[in-house]
Design brief:
The protein is mainly alpha-helical. Helix content is 77%, strand content 0%. The longest helix is centred in the first third of the chain and has 25 residues.
C-alpha cells in the first residue's frame, strides 16, 4: 500500500502503527514487537495491521524507512557540514549512526528485519536504499555531479553495504565507534 495512495485517516492510522511498533522495539527489541500487541497499541484490528504491513519484517523496515525519511528532513533543515564532498558524506553518516545508537533495541530489530531474507520486504528494502542513496548523493553535491555519475552510484551502494556489515558487527557486540570508523575509512576510499 503506497503512502501517497492513502487517505488522511489511513495515513494517520499507518503512523500510529509505526509509532506503536517503534515503542515496542524500544521496550523489548525484536522479541518485543509482536503483531497482536502492535495492533492493540495502535488501536487497530489485527487484520488492518496486516493489510498495511504483511509481516513483522515489513513493519520494522517501514519504521526504518520512516527514520531515514526523518534524517532526510533534518538534513534539509541543517545540511551536512564539511568543506568537501567526502566530509559532508562523513557528517551524514555520523548523524545517522548517532540516531541509531540512541535506541539500540530499535536498531537491532530493524537490522534483524533487514537481514531476514524475507523476499516480501524487497520493495521496502529498495525504498530505504533509494532514500539513503539520495541523501548521500545530495551530500556529495553538484561538484560531483550530484552523485549521479555511475561510479558514484556504485560507490554509494558499496558504502551502504559496508554500513550494513558494520551495523551487523555492532549489534553482534562490536564497539559503536567501530561502525563510524569503518564508514569514515570506506567513504574516503570510495570517494577520494
Amino acid at each position: 500500500m503506497a503512502t501517497h495512495d492513502l487517505t488522511d485517516a489511513q495515513r494517520e492510522r499507518r503512523l500510529r502503527i509505526l509509532a506503536a511498533a517503534e515503542a515496542l522495539a524500544v521496550e523489548g527489541g525484536w522479541d518485543g514487537v509482536q503483531m497482536r500487541e502492535v495492533a492493540t497499541r495502535a488501536d487497530v484490528a489485527l487484520g488492518t495491521l496486516y493489510r498495511y504491513f504483511p509481516s513483522k519484517e515489513h513493519l520494522l523496515l517501514s519504521v526504518m524507512l520512516d527514520q531515514v525519511n526523518g534524517l532526510a528532513d533534518r538534513l534539509s533543515v541543517r545540511p551536512p557540514e564539511g568543506d568537501d564532498p567526502v566530509e559532508r558524506v562523513v557528517d551524514v553518516l555520523r548523524r545517522a549512526n548517532r540516531a541509531l545508537q540512541r535506541e539500540p533495541r530499535v536498531t537491532v530489530a530493524m537490522i534483524r528485519a533487514l537481514v531476514s531474507g524475507n523476499r516480501e520486504v524487497a520493495p521496502v528494502v529498495a525504498a530505504n536504499r533509494d532514500v539513503m542513496r539520495r541523501i548521500i548523493s545530495d551530500a556529495l553535491g553538484p561538484t560531483r555531479g550530484g552523485g549521479q555519475d555511475p561510479r558514484d552510484v556504485l560507490a554509494i551502494d558499496l558504502l551502504s553495504d559496508v554500513w550494513l556489515a558494520a551495523l551487523v558487527s555492532w549489534i553482534g557486540g562490536a564497539e559503536p565507534s567501530t561502525v563510524v570508523d569503518r564508514l569514515e575509512a570506506a567513504t574516503r576510499m570510495l570517494f577520494d
